[in-house]
């Protein structure tokens, strides 16, 4: 199952599992729990992390912390599950701004 993760907006997280989309909006960046939200989405669908077969992440640009956290989670899951992230076997890097 394909995982798509977008946390570039520091008050909203978008997760897609296969073709189902989940959105979590919070009133403050301090209330954002990206990994906890991902785990709850997996649980709601009766899935485990091991069911993920492909990982895609929005690299940015976006909020510094939100982008960094989403990319770190994607890279960590990719490493732990032996999966490429955005088609790359090496860690992907966030894009904080576009010149």
Oligomer: single chain
Whole-number mean pLDDT: 95
CATH class: Alpha Beta
What structural class do you assign from the helix and strand content? alpha+beta
Helix content: 25-40%
Looking across the biggest beta sheet, what order are the strands in?
3-2-1-4
User: Which stretches are poorly predicted, pLDDT < 50 over at least 5 residues?
Assistant: none
What is the distance, rounded to the nearest whole angstrom, between the alpha carbons of the first and last residues?
Answer: 35 Å
Q: Secondary-structure element order, as H and E?
A: EEEHEH
What is the strand content? 15-25%
Number of strands: 4
Major pleated sheet: 4 strands, mixed
Provide a count of the helices.
2
Provide the domain count. Answer: 1
Q: How large is the radius of gyration?
A: 13 Å
CATH topology label: Nucleotidyltransferase, domain 5
The general outline is globular
């Amino acid at each position: 199952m394909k995982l798509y993760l977008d946390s570039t907006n520091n008050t909203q997280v978008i997760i897609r599992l296969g073709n189902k989309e989940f959105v979590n909006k919070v009133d403050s960046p301090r209330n954002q729990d990206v990994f906890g939200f991902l785990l709850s989405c997996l649980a709601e669908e009766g899935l485990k992390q091991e069911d993920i077969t492909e990982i895609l992440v929005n690299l940015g640009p976006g909020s510094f912390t939100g982008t960094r956290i989403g990319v770190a989670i994607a890279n960590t899951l990719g490493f732990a599950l032996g999966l490429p992230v955005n088609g790359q076997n090496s860690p992907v890097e966030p894009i904080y701004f576009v010149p």
